[in-house]
Amino acid sequence: MRIKIENLQLRYGPFTAIQDMDLEIGDRESVVLLGKSGCGKTSTMRCIAGLEEPTAGRITIGETVVFDAEAGINLPPNKRNVGMVFQSYAVWPHMTVFENVAYSLKLQKLAKAEIRQRVAEALALVGLERFADRGASLLSGGQMQRVALARSLVMRPAVLLLDEPLSNLDARLRDRLRVELREIQLRLGLTTVYVTHDQLEAFALADRIALMQDGVIVQVDEPDAMYNTPASASVAHFLGVANVLDVTHSGGDAWSLTGTGLSITSTAPVTGADLGGLKACVRSEDIHLAAEKPVGLNVYPATVLVSSFQGASTRYAVSVGGKLELDVLSSARGGRRFEAGAQVWLSIDPAAVQVLPETATAQASPGTADIVAPRERVRS
Ligand SMILES: Nc1ncnc2c1ncn2[C@@H]1O[C@H](COP(=O)(O)OP(=O)(O)OP(=O)(O)O)[C@@H](O)[C@H]1O
User: Fold this and answer.
1) What angle do CA 35, 38, 39 make, to 5 degrees?
2) pLDDT tens per residue across span 205-253
3) Angle between helices 141-153 and 97-107 (to 10 degrees)
4) Which domains does the chain have, with CATH numbers?
5) What residue stretches are annotated with the ABC transporter domain (predicted)?
6) Cα separation, 372 vs 352, whole angstroms
7) Helix (H, G, I), strand (E, B) or coil at 106
């Protein structure tokens, strides 16, 4: 079921938490709202669910307008056909797993046989069929999270809203449940909106990511496009690009690195050059260290300040002429390790230097006609 958000605005008193938001989510699509704490992700989710009344705008789920500020429409949460799973699983400890999942169906006064069948189906989906009779207080964190998910799925919602549902779990379990969640979403063909501040989680779960900063969606893209072509230096930085350097254009592919007397060559396409405040963005893994001077562009003598062994890789802090400090990540395979104090040659492939504006204005999300159904995309 499609979700269309138009001109959404939410104010808490004088504070604007969501500003002029437009976003279309396709049928069976998984969109992840990604951004740092306080950027307005949960507020957006609460507006879709009907738990928050926006100050302006319109939200349509399927063919139903669930909120329209001008027309005075505001359907309550239970009339929106959405299921929600939150960070705090809110599983009732005094009930069994079965009773937790059956609770809402009992409220709907469904026949006992139907309740049993639907609960069994939901528990099978989350891999908890053997735990139906166990007291919920005896479950692990991961199992409780699955109960919370089963409780939403049992209602057969058209839309599933997930707000950091894995953040209370340890890293290994999070990785596993992430894959399971994606599998369930694709299998049931659910339209999902997922909130997280963790980009790896977003990459793993999204058909498209909507990146939010200060109440505004600044970029909407498929994960690989977001990763490879961030719209701005601040998006790149949020996605883990550690080296963001002030530059001014000095002609052709050449840029001077502000305040260093050094220059850098970029052959990557420059976007938004007219916006000013340009930054050269370089991923740590795109910087190479060598004992011998390599041939090519962007080669500098440098000193290793910190060398930190990380198993499969080594992370370095490296100084170029005392004027520029760069973060470098070298794969352990095939490369030698340098200790702090080592004099090295540092090189950067000009194609790996992206010159971007510091910030960029929101990009319009494509109309749903452009959205490829997730299953088709996965298969292609
Ligand atoms: N009820 C409220 N009253 C006033 N301000 C609020 C209220 N709820 C949220 N805010 C503010 O609105 C902004 C957006 O909050 P929101 O919870 O949507 O952020 P978030 O991106 O989900 O953050 P997190 O990842 O920490 O949950 C924050 O600055 C927050 O302090």
Assistant:
1) 45
2) 999 999 999 999 999 999 999 999 999 999 999 999 999 999 998 888 9
3) 20
4) 3-228 (3.40.50.300), 233-357 (2.40.50.140)
5) 3-239
6) 30
7) helix
**Band of residue 158 on the pLDDT scale cut at 50, 70, 90:** confident
Q: Which two tokens stand for residue 150?
A: 């089963």
Helix (H/G/I), strand (E/B), else coil: 330: strand
What's the complex ipTM? 0.94
- State the average pLDDT over residues 276-288: 92
Residue type (1 letter), 261? G
Report the b/e string of 99-112 with b at 16+ CB within 10 A.
Answer: bbbbebbeeeeeee
Please report, to the nearest 10 degrees, the dihedral formed by the alpha carbons of residues 370, 372, 373, 377 taken in order: -170
Phi then psi for 314, rounded to 5 degrees? Answer: -125, 135
- How confident is the model at residue 11, as a pLDDT? 96
3-state secondary structure of 18: strand
State which of 43, 45, 48 you would mutate to test the pocket of ligand 1, scoring each by most atoms of that ligand within 8 A of its C-beta: 43
- Residue-level pLDDT at 25: 97
Cβ < 6 A, ligand 1 pocket: 12, 15, 17, 35, 37-43, 197
Q: If residue 45 lies in a helix (H) or strand (E), which one and from where to where?
A: helix 41-49
Which residue has a Cα nearest atom 20 of ligand 1? 38
Helix extents (H) in 154-246: 171-188, 199-205, 223-228, 233-238
Rg, C-alpha atoms of the chain? 25
Measured CA angle at 24 (ends 21, 25), to 5 deg = 125
pLDDT of residue 69: 97
Q: What string of DSSP letters covers 237-302?
A: HHTT--EEEEEEEEETTEEEETTTTEEEE--SPP-SGGGS-EEEEE-GGGEEEESSPPSSSSEEEE
Closest ligand 1 atom, residue 215 Cα = 14
Report the first-to-last Cα separation within the chain, whole angstroms.
22
The residues pairing with 210 across neighbouring beta strands, listed in sequence order, are 33, 220
DSSP structural state of residue 109: T
Q: Both tokens of residue 268? A: 């990557």
Cβ-count burial 163-173 (b if 16+ within 10 Å, e if not): bbbbbebeeeb
Q: Give the nearest ligand 1 atom to 13 CA.
A: 4
Q: Do the beta carbons of residue 374 and residue 29 sit within 8 Å?
A: yes
